[in-house]
Design goal:
Blueprint lengths: L6 H10 L6 H13 L3 E4 L6 H12 L2 E6 L6 H4 L1 E3 L1 H10 L6 H8 L5 E3 L1 H7 L4 E6 L8 H11 L1 E4 L3 E4 L5 E6 L7 H5 L2 E4 L5 H11 L5 H15 L9 H13 L7 H7 L7 H10 L3
Parallel strand pairs: 1-8, 1-9, 2-5, 5-8
Antiparallel strand pairs: 3-4, 6-7
Helix pairs in contact: 1-2, 10-11, 10-12
Length: 285
């Protein structure tokens, strides 16, 4: 499968899927598909890393398989595990005269295998986008589970052998850079860094994502969010929160972002009391 014919085609397809990509992003997405290499996207929380993977899925009519990473994630949740209860029932139902070797061969088959996201993605024959989200939140040992998948698009199961991908998925790994990823993982990926967009691009995103927001109000929202991002906040407003704020203002029929409107709706974009207080104090609301 050809994911995208060119960087321009990737940009157009992503735009049609609701994601406004710049030239560097569109080019890297095209190359990830053309070279069949995983794409590692790093950047602050809320800049559209996960949304880019979803947009690739929408743009190509591919199913999205998502592995949400977290501390303590292990092979049983990422790759596969055996359905032990079902295996036990089969053993109990098997004649006591049956040899263990025969019983063993019967219970370690695909019927008893619980496929987790990594194995699911490489086992599918249909076009698939595999999203490995927030990979930096896992323990470093988990990266070892990824290497075989990212290198050869295959998984080795001792009882069954090696399962290789019939159709390689489009793989996206996202990271907030909470910790440094291993060089082994980075070496297997194309790299893309996403940051907050400039004011012009963020305004275009708002105008495309929020029906009813006027050009003037969109510009005011983007300008004010940009000012908030210069403050030392616990959590700077994400693009998604900028969009939510614009939706809120439209729902309240607010056409101009004045001091009263900001004070009444600031909780949509700032989710910590200390950030709220700092914005009120330093932006003199």
């Amino acid at each position: 499968m050809t994911w995208f014919d060119s960087p321009d085609a990737a940009a157009h397809a992503l735009d049609s899927a609701g994601y406004l990509a710049d030239t560097a992003t569109a080019t890297t997405v095209f190359l990830a598909g053309a070279l069949e290499k995983p794409l590692l996207i790093e950047g602050p929380a809320g800049v559209g890393k996960t949304e880019l993977a979803k947009a690739v899925s929408r743009a190509t009519d591919a199913d999205l398989v998502r592995l949400q990473c977290y501390e303590g994630l292990d092979e049983a949740r990422a790759l596969y595990e055996w359905n032990y209860k079902k295996q036990l029932l089969r053993i109990q139902a098997t004649s006591s005269d049956a040899a263990w070797e025969q019983t063993h061969d019967e219970i370690f088959t695909d019927e008893f295998l619980l496929r987790r996201p990594l194995l699911t993605a490489i086992s599918r024959e249909e076009p698939t986008v595999l999203l490995i989200d927030e990979v930096d939140k896992t323990d470093i040992e988990v990266e070892g589970l990824l290497l075989e998948v990212l290198s050869d698009f295959q998984v080795t199961i001792p009882e069954l052998g090696t399962i290789s991908a019939v159709r390689r998925p489009f793989v996206v790994l996202t990271s907030n850079a909470a910790r440094e990823l291993s060089e082994a993982v980075k070496r297997r990926c194309l790299y893309l860094h996403l940051d907050y967009p400039d004011a012009e691009r963020e305004k275009a995103i708002l105008l495309g994502a929020v029906p009813g927001v006027g050009d003037r109000l969109a510009g005011q929202v983007v300008e004010f969010v940009g000012r908030m991002r210069t403050l030392e906040l616990k959590k700077a407003p994400s693009i998604a929160e900028t969009i939510d704020w614009a939706h809120t203002l439209v729902a309240l029929s607010i056409g101009t972002l004045d001091e009263t409107a900001v004070r009444n709706t600031l909780g949509v974009v700032l989710k910590h009391a200390s950030d709220h207080e700092r914005a009120v104090r330093e932006l003199r609301l």
